[in-house]
Amino acid sequence: MSQESDYTPPKVWTWEKESGGKFASTNRPVAGPTHDKELPVGKHPFQLYSLATPNGVKAGVMFEELLAQGHDAEYDAWLIDIGEGDQFGSGFVEVNPNSKIPALMDHTTTPPTRVFESGSILLYLAEKFDAFLPTDHAARTETLNWLFWQMGSAPFLGGGFGHFYAYAPQKLEYPIDRYAMETKRQLDVLDRHLSETHYLAGDDYTIADIANWTWYGQLALGRLYDAGEFLQVQEYENVQRWAKEIDARPAVQRGRMVNRTFGEPEMQLHERHDASDFEQKTQDKLDAGS
Ligand SMILES: N[C@@H](CCC(=O)N[C@@H](CS)C(=O)NCC(=O)O)C(=O)O
Question: The whole model's pTM is what?
Fold first, then answer.
């Protein structure tokens, strides 16, 4: 392994603003807002502030699944451009002091309720609508097992593997090797489990599937970091079966488009304020009309 390095950590770490890498211009070692900016509020009971990263897609899919089941879960989805530092606006920080998407305000309660952390958003909505979370104690526990497993595991995939494979300014063998190994181990955890069960918590599709699909399902489908071949994702046959089945759900197709600003223009819906937006306001349609 070629790991020559002339770096020796100093006694005290100091912030090197020009560290490079895709998110170097917005990353900081402190929390809190950088500027005053109120968040917009639309007409619907739920206000989602997000971007179509895997964590953001969880919220879009959940809302679309709830609406598809007939729940009163209409929502406005506002774009938070994390590359531009929107997550550090004062209004956003009031909803999520951690400055990460997705963040949600529920205006059906008095006062409105803030919800941050994508797993907390899924659980909050599942409990509120009694949907996608089994009531049977064993199945509910298994759902929460896999929901929390995802929340704890995916930072090694995204912040570890994805960061060093796709975003870091240099390709470094040690971290790529370390996190590729862990990502493949996690895929194998899922693959073995899905050889015994249809969905993650049993026979029913739950918030555990939504949470895991946006990361591991999309990785298996070759949509994350252009790393499908590198990680040989097609070898995980049970994950493939599960990922494709969930991908075919109409609500998942719509949820993937919400707050999406990259990829094919027909899949990009920068903001979602009405069900008809999926037909009328995708970026290809807006570009054709302008
Ligand atoms: N554990 C959080 C993670 C959220 C997260 O990392 N969001 C990223 C996009 S996927 C973000 O907002 N990054 C902006 C930043 O780090 O400044 C969750 O699941 O909601």
Answer: 0.96
